[in-house]
Design a protein that fits this description.
single chain; about 140 residues; alpha+beta; 4-stranded antiparallel beta sheet; two-stranded antiparallel sheet; elongated
Length: about 140
């Protein structure tokens, strides 16, 4: 991801901290928000410190039969001392990289899961209409 050095967070975000970008042929949704419950950016009344800022990046791809694969990344930018959080132009870039890595890891996990199920299906005759299944006690085919 290219960082826009003219923007405080490395890309243009709207008034609500949202942005959309394209990375590795995926449409990635980014959100930059503080973690306070207050609508006014101010120090916490108890601790005297400002809230951290969370940068999230997420996307999903949908396949046949409604199959969905997601990628999510999150980076937290902490305040220093009692000062507010200073925008980090690399935070969005790191969140997007984490989302892409999460997507790749999820894809690999789904491939492994599908391979395990395909192997289990092939142990019987593979055709449920014939009633052939593998008997788990004897590892032989039985008719139900």
């Amino acid at each position: 991801m290219d960082i826009d050095t003219d923007q405080p967070w490395g890309l243009a975000i709207d008034y609500a901290g949202r942005a959309t970008l394209t990375e590795a042929d995926h449409t990635v949704y980014v959100n930059v928000s503080d973690t306070s419950f207050n609508s006014i950016i101010a120090p916490d009344s108890v601790t005297g410190t400002y809230s951290p800022v969370t940068v999230t990046a997420q996307f999903s791809e949908t396949g046949d039969s409604g199959a969905v694969l997601r990628g999510t990344g999150r980076v937290t930018v902490m305040p220093v001392g009692t000062a507010p959080v200073v925008p980090d132009q690399t935070a969005v870039q790191r969140a997007v990289a984490a989302a892409l890595e999460d997507f790749r890891a999820n894809a690999a996990a789904y491939v492994a899961l599908c391979a395990a199920w395909a192997t289990d299906e092939l142990e019987g005759d593979g055709d449920p209409s014939t009633g052939g299944e593998t008997d788990p006690d004897t590892d032989t085919e039985s008719t139900i």
